[in-house]
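Quick one, T. Sequence first:
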Amino acid sequence: MNSDVAAHLDTSTFANEATAPDEAFDLIDKQYGASTYGSERYSADELYWMGYLYRYWAYVYGTRSSNIYKKIGARDLRTLYPAYHTLDPAQAIERIAEARGFSLAPLTLDEQVELLRRIRAKHAKRRTA
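Structure tokens:
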């Protein structure tokens, strides 16, 4: 969550790019070195749901992944997988925030439209550059 890859995913430009998972792992290995850290193993389904939820949260609420991770770490989020993985991501996030006692400041529809316009404008600028 503190890697350059995660920071890049927090920017608005990632939505218009295609990065293969192997490339992302290679970049993380280059930044931190290969790791055999940890003995706890997560299932592929748990990892997919957790990653999707963190990314959705960061993107929709306009915050950094590392800030979300500080609020609810992987171990805590994993305990919620059985109960929340079938919920819509927005519902899961709302329930997590309510249970943990922190507020969400969701973007209004106008703010969401403006964010989408900025993303598209940046992407269009890169294509012409």
